Amino acid sequence: MTRVALTYERLCRIVLMVFVVNVAMLVHTLMGLIVGGFFPSIAAAYATFRTWLIDEDQSWRVRQTWTVFHRAWKDELTQANLFGWGQLIIGLALAWDYYLVNWNDLGGVVGVGVSGLLLLLNLVFWTVAALSWSVRANFDEPLPWVLRMSLNMTVARPLCTLLLLAFTVIIGWTWSQWPGVFMVFGAAVPIFAVQAVIYSFGGLPGMSVKEQLSPGATDEAVAESGGVPA
């Protein structure tokens, strides 16, 4: 009975934390006049969930969640906007290409092949994009390193990649069936799902449930290897 009660309490704390992060994302997006506050809010959400996952004491109160988020948001005002807007422009271009191919008759096998290739490119791009926010929240490294690490993880951690895609489908279906879930928890839900999956199955040094490297050597070892550890 005690174990059930503790599990229920932990679940409630997670739900509350995700809700608080969603509210913080909305407030800080408005603080940045939407255009300047949206991507720093995404970066802050990733950083907040990362901090919570690796914290020995995960019994966070509302104030602690908000404080961690706000500090991360202020630190990300410049870099997150450069990172996020660049990703969005590329993502919209890929999505537009896929739309054009599907709504214009290219004929036969060629059309199907091009459409399939663009769909694959879109899936790979958005998977790498989701991973890249997690990687940059975990490492203070240049953009090329972050992108290379994210791409390596996409290929080297197939279970993690498949789970990310599966959770994307599940969350999208849940939002379509119960719009209230989106209204209450918003984008904080998929961000938390990404961080939880990477923490459990990504093997990301510094944010892994089965850390194999010592904490002091984690960043240095991965930076030297330039890839995902085995």
TrEMBL record:
The chain crosses the membrane at residues 12-31, 80-100, 106-133, 154-175, 181-202. This is DUF624 domain-containing protein. Keywords: Membrane, Transmembrane, Transmembrane helix. The keyword Iron-sulfur does not apply. InterPro entries: DUF624 (IPR006938). It comes from Schaalia odontolytica. Pfam families: DUF624 (PF04854).
